[in-house]
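Example record

The entry below shows one chain as it appears in the dataset: sequence first, then structure tokens.
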Amino acid sequence: MRLGRGAAVGGVERNAMARRSKAGAAGAKPARRRRSGLVHEEALGFQLRVTWEAMRAALQQRLAAHGMRFQHWSYLRVLWAADGISQNDLSERVRRVGANTVSALNGLQRAGLVKRVRSRVDRRTIHVHLTPAGRALENVLVPLAEDVQRAAAKGIPARDLASFRRVLAAIQGNLRAA
């Protein structure tokens, strides 16, 4: 793939790189770029994202063997614990916006894993219920997630994992308060 004029290469514009090299060739000192003290690979957010992506990929690989997508797993996991909750509550618990929830539920409904029922009390509210097939998947899919958890924690002492969870909770609290 060719980069066009002004395209970024390693976070530096291509044109800016050319200007610096010409300036250097003419004997002038290139402009000094201010450097941040934050090294990308050491950033907490970056490390959390890389870890999340690795765990998600490991689970997705296992789910795919059963014809399931990770997106659907997130909703089923909540429904196994709270079958019949409203679609809005489900969306909040999965931490997805309404449109994503509708799309995921459409797929789960087409697969025969959930059904949506309008509330008799408030016709605006839709409750999501597992079908017998959706309920049965719990015994198949939960062990896959447990397998990923075990693989991720392999060789890490329990006290370190407990400390890690405390640190994550503290980071989350700090960011909520910020």
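Notes for this example: The first strand starts at residue 8 and ends at 9. The beta strands are 8-9, 12-13, 114-118, 126-130.
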